[in-house]
Sequence to fold (589 residues):
Amino acid sequence: MAINEETVKQVAKLAKLEIKEEDIQTFTTEMDSIIDMVEQLEELDTEGVEGTYHGISHHNVWREDKAEEGTDKEALFKNVKTRKDGYIEVPAMFDNGGSEA
Amino acid sequence: MNFLDYTLEELHEKLVNKEVTAVDLVEASYKRIEETDESVGAFLGLNKEDALKAARETDEKGIDPDNILSGLPIGIKDNILTKDVVTTAASKMLEDFVPVYDATVVEKLKAVGMITIGKLNMDEFAMGGSTENSAYKLTRNPWDLNKVPGGSSGGSAAAVAAGQVPVSLGSDTGGSVREPAAFTGLVGVKPTYGRVSRYGLIAFGSSLDQIGPFTRTVKDNALVLNAISGYDSKDSTSYHGETTDFTEGIDKGVKGLRIGVPKEYYNEDAKEDGVIKAVREALDLYEKMGAEIVEVSLPHSKYGIPAYYIIASSEASSNLQRFDGIRYGYRSENVESLEDIYVKSRSEGFGLEVKRRIMLGTFSLSSGFYDAHFKKAAQARTLIRNDFDKVFKEVDVLVAPTTTTTAFDIGGKIDDPLAMYMSDILTVPVNLAGVPSLSVPCGFSNDMPVGMQIIGKHFDEQMMYRVAYAFEKETDHLSRKPSLKGGA
Fold:
């Protein structure tokens, strides 16, 4: 086993996901076989090989520092569920709001 | 009026000669959808009023005889933003999401007068190879309704194969245009990375994603790619080079060209030998037409799948962090704290496969695994890219099967994620290397279409289209039409 149920729970926490208790076992088994598969890479000799992190070779892209028309603020609020006084409204973060507090 | 009987050029000619109007074409599209989509299930949403309005305006203005795409209907994959038209990426997360701007490709299509008919089904957030991961509906293969249309752009493929629209757009991160094109007997392209702007494409694997059209013919495909490609200041990874006409030199033939045959892509022990047989027949034909067939090797091909699933999932885990239930998208109602909004909205809004990928990506990027997973995969990617660079010093294009089998049964792989991942084995190396690849129909196996991919050098789509066009002209695969029925 490359990973166990504890690791799955830990990774879920990092990813801000909740895996239901009854699904943990299946999820762990599937994740384990996927991780086994990707770890085939271990056999590959990559000593001294640079990594490729982009689709094509990358270069800096510059533009003139000039103000341009952006998207209308009202339009950006179109998909917001709850709003108040021009802001997005969410439940309280403090006073018992954050589980990590 | 059936779109299976005409090329885009022929439709354009009819518009110019006033045999049909743009309104006729749009109405024909909706009529065909009405007749066939109950069994095919390609569309998630239609925008009939706007499409008819646009068509009327086009007719009033008159068809520009020099603008071949003007007034032609098109379907759009539902991960491409369409202003004021609901765009869901086939996820519950974006059930009621209304974009406030058009993707660059949609703007470009509008600029040439194409008319968007509706939004097409897909695997949720483009993750999958069968369109079975859609949160909304099943899409069926028009050649056999018991089989999948491929994925993730399965709706885009099925709509064109069923004659509902003459062309559609899909997106290809690891094969999501080419595999469904192969499964439904269509031409589908993954352009060179950077060729088409990704602005307004809901991001999956940002260093891999490219948008590409589905069409019935090679030239049609080149024409639509002409319309959507080009530099975009809103996508800093888009290509700065000169604009290219992909139809230029398309009819020059293959005499004297060197066609590479990557031996790793021809697994003779594969489950379905009809696929390799069809591609080998195509190679024989190329040889008869005067091309030189050269066996080559891409030795790191087998590391494509592991490298791809680490890289694509890592990028996805980062890209999909934006779905937090705050600014847009699904928000769980059952929340007491801010943390609750994040966790519950994401857990209720994302489907199983999306969660799997986010989890794999998060794991691969986490401290302790970053070097062994993400960094190692990036190094493997360099080796895969070097393989392509090396063979392209010897040959003009590579020709290989697009998939190892023809379309599989609905339900056949959905409970086995690993088997589903392995079906991308012949398509992912192209995305990792950034090179372009075009899948074209090259025959049939067990009465289902077989696709052959023509892989080109970076930014040499012209050569790829030329080689594909020469084959299409010498063969007659297009005359066979899908049954829109279930299998025996």
The mean pLDDT of chain B is 96.
